[in-house]
Write a sequence for this structure.
């Protein structure tokens, strides 16, 4: 059946079929090639989109802006500090207003219900640029990057996420892997595994049973064996800074080191990370935490800069995959 995503919101990969995700990945590969070869595409001429950010961003904001501009669309950026959003105006009213102005809305913030409400009330496609429980555009970029670097189909790929297995990236990975028939391991402490949402896990299992995916949660380092990708993320996500002492205590054994990479027994195992990352003390946050006695680095600088690390391809692919989502939904 032909895939048609026109007018559809992109709130979570759980709303997309494997063939729709395949379509977006193929489109992203094509759009990257167009850019490389200097082919003008511009299917969003005359469209305008708005980007709403209640949390900070470098990659996601720039990826949306560059993707939209390269395709010919106009872009407006709003954050909570410079708009009425959330303080003087409800999300419902904001959505109804923005839906009259724009062809699509990107949202980054806290509650997943906000992106759902924006989609419900605006009447235009809404794209999830990260919430507390999901980061679907990041997974598209990650899948694209794996396809560029691993010479086997996605359904033969094993991804091990090491660290805060209850965060937005870990859930997003579960969804992506379940949909694409992959092997996903959330490798982290039992204390954090106990915090996972059982209802969500049941839904993921249903999808995995259908696609042939394997979704595991483990604190046993044996699970690293045979990984094609080791994935890391910060130990305390945006808004969780108070958790740093407890997370450092729980997650230090899950820091990605060269020994952890070697435990995969796969010399070609990729290291991936959504970024931003604490891998040295060149940031204010890592430095100040260290002064308080907390080493918050989730990966060593050595692994971060190793030949197996494909971080900056991954970052670049945010733009190509977000462009694919824009073109597919409002093009
Ligand atoms: N990976 C990612 O979403 O980065 P930003 O927070 O910079 O957007
Ligand atoms: N888990 C991280 C991802 C950042 C892209 C956060 O939410 O801060």
């Amino acid at each position: 059946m032909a895939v048609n995503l026109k007018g559809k919101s992109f709130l979570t990969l759980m709303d997309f079929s494997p063939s729709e995700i395949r379509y977006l990945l193929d489109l992203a590969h094509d759009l990257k090639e167009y850019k490389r070869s200097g082919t003008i595409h511009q299917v969003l001429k005359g469209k305008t989109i708005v980007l709403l950010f209640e949390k900070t961003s470098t990659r996601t904001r720039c990826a949306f802006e560059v993707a939209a501009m390269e395709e010919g669309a106009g872009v407006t950026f709003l954050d909570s500090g410079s708009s009425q959003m959330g303080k003087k105006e409800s999300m419902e009213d904001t959505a109804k207003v923005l839906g009259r102005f724009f062809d699509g809305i990107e949202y980054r913030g806290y509650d997943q219900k906000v992106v759902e409400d924006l989609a419900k009330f605006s009447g235009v496609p809404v794209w999830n640029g990260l919430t507390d429980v999901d980061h679907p555009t990041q997974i598209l970029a990650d899948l694209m990057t794996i396809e560029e670097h691993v010479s086997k189909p996605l359904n033969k790929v094993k991804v091990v996420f090491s660290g805060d297995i209850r965060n937005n990236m870990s859930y997003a990975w579960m969804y992506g892997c379940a949909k694409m028939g992959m092997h996903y391991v959330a490798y982290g402490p039992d204390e954090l595994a106990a915090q996972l949402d059982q209802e969500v896990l049941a839904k993921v299992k249903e999808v995995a049973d259908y696609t042939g995916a394997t979704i595991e949660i483990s604190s046993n380092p044996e699970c690293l064996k045979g990984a094609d990708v080791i994935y890391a993320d910060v130990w305390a996500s945006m808004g969780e800074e108070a958790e740093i002492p407890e997370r450092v205590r729980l997650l230090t054994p899950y820091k990605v080191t060269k020994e952890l990479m070697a435990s995969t027994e796969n010399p070609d195992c990729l290291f991936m990370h959504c970024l931003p990352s604490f891998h040295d003390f060149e940031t204010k946050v890592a430095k100040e935490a260290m002064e308080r006695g907390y080493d918050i680095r989730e990966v060593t600088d050595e692994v971060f800069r190793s030949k197996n690390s494909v971080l900056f391809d991954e970052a670049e692919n945010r733009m190509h995959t977000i462009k694919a989502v824009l073109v597919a939904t409002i093009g």
About this structure: The mean pLDDT is 97. Residues 130, 167-169, 233-234, 237-238, 274 surround norvaline (ligand 2) (CB under 6 Å).
